[in-house]
Amino acid sequence: MAVIGITGGAGTGKSFVAGIAAERFDMLHIDTDKLARAQMMPGGVAYTGVAEAFPDCVMDGQIDRAALAKKVFGNKELLGKLNGLTHPFVREAVETLIKNAEGLFEHVLIETAILADAGYCPICDAVWYVTAPLEDRKKRLAGRGYDAERIESVLGSQPSDEEYRKTSTYVIYNGEDADGEKILEQIEEAASLLPKRR
């Protein structure tokens, strides 16, 4: 069973690509953002630490993720603080899910925007980097309700294309001109390069 990391900046469509890959190749799709979100809910393992560190982002007993994102994006110190409070718990959950997937799935797909920074590269047999033109990414983020200031803040806080490519073993292009068939062709080629079952 190969462990694949799938990464890319905001608006590249990595979730879309991951969804196609998981369906086509019977992969367990682990979305680290969803894990972090669940863990920051009241009663979650990361809730208390985040709530105490960012009390102004707690509304009616819940962590306001939009307010939290606005506060930390563009501020490396605060982003690092938040990551330190959440990443260890997410990593632990990911490792448990991988262990439990043995024999049940063909492969495991770990989706995260910061694969290298979160320390997942050593446990991945392959790293797929999803990329798209900057204007396409901005258009997609605007479609999600991001204003121009937030778009620039989010994009500016993430690794550069060069940094992503340094840790990737395969690049998947997902611009607006790439249809589902083209995406699937790239996924199939990337999958053909995966190491044999271990």
Summarize this, please?
The chain is an alpha/beta fold. The protein has a single domain, classed as Rossmann fold, CATH 3.40.50.
SSE layout:
Blueprint: E1 2-7, H1 14-25, E2 27-31, H2 32-39, H3 47-53, E3 58-59, E4 62-63, H4 65-72, H5 76-101, E5 107-111, E6 126-131, H6 134-143, H7 148-157, H8 161-166, E7 170-173, H9 180-192
Parallel strand pairs: 1-5, 1-6, 2-5, 6-7
Antiparallel strand pairs: 3-4
Helix pairs in contact: 1-9, 2-5
Structure characteristics:
7 strands, alpha/beta, five-stranded parallel beta sheet, 9 helices, globular, single chain, two-stranded antiparallel sheet, 198 residues, Rossmann fold
CATH third-level topology: Rossmann fold
User: How many helices?
Assistant: 9
Strand content: 15-25%
Low-confidence stretches: none
Report what the structure shows:
By secondary structure, the protein is an alpha/beta fold. It has a single domain, classed as P-loop containing nucleotide triphosphate hydrolases (Rossmann fold). The protein is built from nine helices and seven strands. The protein has helices spanning 14-25, 32-39, 47-53, 65-72, 76-101, 134-143, 148-157, 161-166, 180-192; strands at 2-7, 27-31, 58-59, 62-63, 107-111, 126-131, 170-173. It has a five-stranded parallel sheet with strand order 2-5-1-6-7, with helices on both faces. Strands 3-4 form a two-stranded antiparallel sheet. A hairpin with a 2-residue loop joins β3 (58-59) and β4. α2 (32-39) crosses α5. The protein is globular and about 50 Å long. It starts with a strand and ends in a 6-residue tail after the last helix. The model has no long low-confidence stretch (mean pLDDT 92).
